[in-house]
Amino acid sequence: MPATSVVRRSLAVVAALPLFTLAACGYGSQAEDDGAAKVAAGAKKIDGLDSVKIGYFGNLTHGTALVGMEKGFFQKELGATEVEPAVFNAGPSEIEALNSGSIDIGWIGPSPAINGYTKSGGKNLRIIGGSASGGVKLVVNPDKIKSLKDVKGKRIATPQLGNTQDVAFLNWAAEQGWKVDPQSGKGDVTVVRSDNKVTPDAFKAGSIDGAWVPEPTASKLVAEGGKELLDEATLWPDKKFVITNIIVRQEFLQKHPKVVEAVLKASVTTNKWINANPDAAKEAANKLLEKETGKALPAEVLDPAWKSIRFTDDPLASTLNTEAEHAVKAGLLEKPDLQGIYDLAPLNKVLKAEGAPAVDDAGLGVK
Question: What value does the mean pLDDT of the chain take?
């Protein structure tokens, strides 16, 4: 089957969301930080480019982008090339923005990256770096679900059909021997696709019994009386799995390699700062979230959420391949050809200059 046909109809519908849907998902919304205001005096544009459009989610699993924007690390590396941030709520809308040229570089989960790559026949994006591992949990109503086996027959939310957590939950359910129709979400357990912003309200109202979600949504549910039943990290070797990658439009990478390198350098600098200053880093991420949403996360949500995420430059490529296998197993994807999805040469150049070890593409890099 050709690469352009690998995504089943159900997933293709999600990956091709119309623009009016994207607007509801935060498509193109701007962070309040104005990159131009942080341009240093005398700074020069990189590659002569006026601006670079960077996308990310308002999730703590995108903490590299949040902290890097808030602390000005990206603008510092980009000189007079202005950072234009765009905030999204789900991967498919960000992939649509990348494909249309509305953003150039983005922080995104593995499943949307796989879907976007395969649906375009390997022509629209490249994964150029890692960002985070972990930060995903199954949180349930303890009055209705007391053990993992009790999940059967219940209503469990995931953020969106075909997104990273949706694939993970469907795969986990299949491993329990339960059958679920991937498109409708109906079966031995009912999967309710619910925006992370409204999931806590749905949980409080009792319309869902639990949720397989990223941080900070998971910790918000715990703060509302939910119980953490499973940390997805425990299902992976060494408790490591990719939750956030850095992607770029291939055309942008070819035309503006120095800009891409500058963004990657800023990402490496940010991750190093996060890991050396965890408390200050979570406060910086929370500060930007407050600017974007109008409300900061309370300590009882922020603290446990931040502790469950590992920030890393390594894209953990072997786990992305495994997640693709999970999507195939769940019935959301035909077996994809992921050869060429990674181009880690720019990142490894940055890491070498920093005296850090190179990262591996698990055999899925460009030839």
Answer: 89
